[in-house]
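Example 5.3 — NAD-dependent epimerase/dehydratase family protein
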Amino acid sequence: MNPIKIILTGATGMVGEGVLMECLENPNVSEILSVSRKPSGKTHPKLKEYLVPDFLTIDLNDENLKGYDACFFCAGISSVGMSEEDYTKITYDTTVYFAKAVLNQNPDMVFNYVSGAHTDSTESGKQMWARVKGRTENALKKLGFRNAFNFRPGFMKPVEGQIHVKWFFKPIIWIFPVFLPSKSLTLHEVGRAMINGVHKGYPTSVLEIRDIKNLAI
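Solution (predicted structure tokens):
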């Protein structure tokens, strides 16, 4: 398989950093453009960085986003303490706008979106975050990407050497893979599944934990 060029968001968060590290190591990725508000703190021959203060200000015809095979959208935020309006702006509006921008420049692109376990595809459940994530998933599927995959991981073990891991998370990292292996993934697996999805596709657009594990092989 030919190595791919990818755009990645969220490199300064735990999920994005872990996926980025897998992509830097993986021979099936030749180039990564990290789009972020802040530098990732990493240097590598494969890595380029494009710093933007606000994704909603990106020009929909931005040529910096041209020439890529896939986008791995790993940026996200917790809904704790947020109103539905504010969470929608960050989670739905920003993601869909950015997706339109990269699709404009790359009509044959694959878009991988990190959603969440128990996301609500009906958009009508009681949990606010799950409704908004479901709405985002549904919108991405309609945009016209070659493939749009919605990743719904559970617990994700960081890649060794990651620096963007919350302090309160570190003491319990070992617990989930040991006691709840069916609900756990490593960020190596998430990254590999994203890469393999670009090359091989997958029968469903929504990938639960078992699907991510299968696609990572």
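Remark. Residues 4-216 form a domain with the Rossmann fold fold (CATH 3.40.50.720).
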